[in-house]
Design brief:
Elements: H1 20-23, H2 34-37, H3 45-57, E1 61-65, H4 71-82, E2 88-91, H5 98-102, E3 103-105, H6 107-120, E4 130-132, H7 134-139, E5 146-150, H8 158-162, H9 164-169, E6 171-174, E7 179-182, E8 190-195, H10 203-206, E9 210-214, H11 218-227, H12 237-253, H13 262-278, H14 293-296, H15 300-308
Parallel strand pairs: 1-8, 1-9, 2-5, 5-8
Antiparallel strand pairs: 3-4, 6-7
Length: about 300
């Protein structure tokens, strides 16, 4: 970490760094993926209780909270703790439909082949054009899997209600073939659903979920930092404590449009560790002027307001 030149791009510098430097950037040596971070995740007692409740009653666990508080990470934590990795991760998009979670029928290829087969009077097997998707994969697993439906509030409003039958009965039918796909109760997937609360979910769907809202907790943040201490070796314990105080003051004292959370703080510490390890003379040790503010704040007006103080 200390051998990395942190300021690769400088306006007054005509030197072109070797391309090998880009291949050896510090982040490449640190695994910060969901699987790795699952072993360092701190859920807190309330979330842990919600997880155990959802598993016990076989209901989906709906987790809300501000971005960066660990909603997605919770699913990977469950899979890690139960030894049922990997997570089946379904990322919801603005045009996602319920069937996208079940299967895909390749209509274009089917009609193309049907046109060719018509000349030879060959009968096509529609099952060859069906592709399994996340829920189908979970149904056919040898053991219960964690199925994460991430950011469900991004989907069209009908998406949650369109899945009520599938979630209740743990079965669905492939319309093109008539095949029924189901899973026995013992292999029922552990459904984890996250939402950023951009839009309220339908009441019938909410009634079928175990609900938990993740609130920012300074104590959990401190524990998360402790478990990742090896990532911040150039920083002293006193410096980390100071950074945490300045971060909390940023959250508490400014009317921010987008309040930074756990995720932003952990990344900020990594940036500070790089800066201290490479160019300690360029970093204000009292953090009176918060450096690398763009890591913490993601709104131009928020940044302007903080810099005025």
């Amino acid at each position: 970490m200390t051998n990395y030149r942190f300021d690769l791009i400088r306006a007054a510098d005509d030197e072109v760094p070797p391309r090998s430097v880009l291949l050896n950037r510090p982040f490449a040596a640190i695994d910060t993926g969901f699987e790795a971070d699952a072993r360092r995740f701190v859920p807190g007692q309330a979330l842990e209780t919600a997880i155990n409740t959802a598993i016990a009653v076989g209901e989906p666990l709906l987790i809300t909270g501000e971005p960066g508080t660990g909603k997605t990470q919770a699913a990977y934590y469950i899979a890690c703790k139960l030894g049922i990795e990997p997570v089946i991760h379904f990322q919801v998009k603005s045009d996602t439909t319920a069937r996208d979670l079940l299967y895909n029928f390749d209509t274009v290829r089917y009609f193309h082949d049907a046109h060719i087969a018509g000349a030879t009077k060959t009968r096509l097997q529609k099952g060859r054009y069906v592709e399994r998707r996340a829920l189908w994969e979970a149904f056919e697993s040898e053991y219960p899997r964690v199925l994460l439906i991430d950011e469900i509030d991004k989907a069209p409003r009908d998406f949650p209600n369109d899945l009520l039958h599938e979630f209740d009965k743990m079965e669905f039918t492939v319309l093109e073939t008539g095949k029924r796909i189901r899973t026995p109760p013992a292999k029922r997937p552990i459904l984890v659903i996250t939402s950023n609360s951009e839009r309220r979910l339908p009441e019938p769907f909410l009634r079928r979920c175990v609900y938990h809202h993740v609130r920012f907790d300074e104590r959990l943040l401190q524990e998360a930092v402790r478990l990742r201490r090896d990532m911040y070796l150039p920083l002293s314990d006193d410096f980390i404590a100071l950074a945490l105080r300045r971060f909390m003051a940023l959250r508490d004292e400014f009317p921010l449009r987008k309040t930074p959370s756990t995720g932003e703080f952990l990344v900020w510490l990594r940036v500070l560790a790089l800066a201290v390890g490479s160019y300690p003379e360029q970093l204000h040790t009292d953090l009176s002027k918060l450096p690398y503010l763009g890591v913490l704040l993601k709104d131009h007006q928020d940044i302007a307001d903080v810099q005025k103080r």
